[in-house]
Amino acid sequence: MARLILLNKPYGVICQFSPSPPHQCLADVLPVPDVYPAGRLDTDSEGLLLLTDSGALQARIADPKHKLPKVYWVQVEGVPTDAELEPLRHGVDLGDFTSRPAQVRIIAEPEGLWPRNPPVRFRAAIPTSWLEITISEGKNRQVRRMTAKVGYPTLRLVRYGVGGYTLDNLLPGQWRELRVAAPVVPRKADGERASSGRPKQRGRRGPNKAR
Fold first, then answer.
1. pLDDT score of 173
2. Extended beta strands in 19-127, E state
3. Catalytic choice (28, 34, 42, 93)
4. How far apart (Å, rounded) are the C-alpha atoms in residues 90 and 164?
5. What SS3 string covers 105-147?
6. Residue pLDDT, tens place only, 143-201
7. Domains recognised in the chain with CATH numbers
8. Peptide linkage before 33 cis (omega within 30 of 0)
9. Distance (Å, rounded) from C-alpha 26 to C-alpha 28?
10. pLDDT tens profile 62-110
11. Is 42 tagged catalytic?
12. Most CB within 10 Å of its CB: which of 60, 98, 143, 190?
């Protein structure tokens, strides 16, 4: 069985365990040794981050080929119409790639959502809206780029779910641990395992470049 940690990553925490002043790092909020992120979450984004001690499970969650749905709550500047969001449902050209079709709907502010610290800077004359966006990929700052492309810049980004896991009942900095069956690692032709099963230690160097 593999360890799987569900962490509600606070705003401003960099997605790595090694120190990176002036940001807090994962070691400051998660006192659990020998687990590593399965995927990334941008420093100025909040919400669900999965960590595991299983390389096979890490790959199963993080590798885009598995197309696990990722659900985001997105506060945008302005009030889009459903028609204005339609391009996101077909995929938008972001220059270096075209996004896959996303599921997008306008929602009320999520019930029980915690205040962000520090607060979002609003423009008094411009209202804001909340969207729920589900994608099955996760390129650098993708959701922010998608909403900007259709004219509605992201002000706040909270990842609510990955696959079947959600941040329900977790406040920022809180976490819970599950025990799950690790995926079977394919074997090479000579009978040796294709990998050691040790998670890749991502984010140990340089700035965070996550979604």
1. 97
2. 24-25, 36-37, 46-52, 70-77, 103-107
3. 42
4. 24
5. EEECCCCCCCCCCCCCCCCCCCCEEEEEEEECCCCCCHHHHHH
6. 999 999 999 999 999 999 999 999 999 999 999 999 999 887 555 444 434 444 557 65
7. 1-66+163-211 (3.30.70.580), 69-161 (3.30.70.1560)
8. no
9. 5
10. 887 888 999 999 999 999 999 999 999 999 999 999 999 999 999 999 9
11. yes
12. 143
Residues in the chain: 211
CA angle 8, 10, 11 (to 5 degrees): 140
Distances (CA, A) of 54 to 72, 159, 199: 25, 22, 6
C-alpha 147/C-alpha 92 separation (Å) is 10
CA–CA dist 187, 195 (Å, integer): 8
Nearest to 156 by CA among 128, 186, 126: 128
